[in-house]
TrEMBL record:
Residues 7-119 form the HotDog ACOT-type domain. InterPro entries: Cytosol_ACT, HOTDOG_ACOT, HotDog_dom_sf, Thioestr_dom. SUPFAM superfamilies: Thioesterase/thiol ester dehydrase-isomerase (SSF54637). GO terms for biological process: acyl-CoA metabolic process; fatty acid catabolic process. It comes from the Bacteria. The keyword Transport does not apply. Belongs to the acyl coenzyme A hydrolase family. Keywords: Hydrolase. This is Acyl-CoA hydrolase. GO terms for molecular function: long-chain fatty acyl-CoA hydrolase activity. GO terms for cellular component: cytosol. Pfam families: 4HBT.
Length: 170
């Protein structure tokens, strides 16, 4: 299995904030932003491995600053780290006040995708090679996040054993 640079998976998306995209605070609805995040991250993961991928987990989404209708919202995503079949993708969300040009980091997110073979089983992905300072920092800190994911996955499996599938009206 070969190697791919982080830049080979890098994707960008910029959008306006339309009236149908806002919540009752007149700022971008969190669910809308999460949909943009999952969308762009899945493209970055697919570009890295050139295989079908699924979202295994949205590890974190931190909403740092509200996005208003006068802002353009830009997302940047790239693969930061790989396991055997899993890929960690980082998404950076920047808002730009269109009339002043002022830019602010509005949100950051980490997600994990898994590459699937023809039988929808996890399959090996290429290693990732970071180059820029940002990519190197994210790559270097990734094993710690991978360990946290491993522990959280164990915990969520244990938790699922306690949950029932009955509805209140059953
Ligand atoms: C993600 C999925 C393919 C993993 O399958 P699985 O049979 O559990 O596979 P494994 O236990 O062998 O794990 C495969 C890889 O996924 C990773 N993984 C599995 N579940 C994970 C989770 N919840 N969070 C992070 N990584 C996870 C494992 O760490 C492993 O990584 P590695 O190969 O790099 O070591 C499976 O759980 C699945 O299909 N889930 C539903 C996905 C989905 O519907 N997403 C939403 C729509 S795209």
């Amino acid at each position: 299995m070969g190697k791919r640079f982080s830049r080979e998976s890098r994707c960008f998306k910029t959008a306006r904030v339309f009236p149908t995209d806002v919540n009752n605070h007149n700022t971008l609805f969190g669910g809308k932003l999460m949909s943009y995040i999952d969308d762009i991250a899945s493209i970055a993961a697919t570009k890295h491995c050139r295989r079908p991928v699924v979202t295994a987990s949205t590890d974190s989404v931190d909403f740092l600053s509200p996005i208003r209708p006068s802002d353009a919202v830009s997302l940047e995503a790239f693969v930061t780290w790989t396991g055997r079949s899993s890929m960690e993708v980082f998404v950076k969300v920047v808002k730009e006040e269109l009339l002043t040009g002022e830019r602010t980091i509005a949100a950051t997110s980490f997600l994990t995708f898994v590459a699937l073979d023809e039988n929808r089983k996890p399959i090996e992905v290429p290693d990732v090679v970071p180059e820029t300072e940002e990519e190197l920092k994210l790559h270097e800190t990734a094993p710690q996040r991978a360990e946290m994911r491993r522990l959280r996955r164990q915990e969520s499996k244990r938790f699922a054993d306690y949950l029932t599938v009955t509805h209140p009206w059953d």
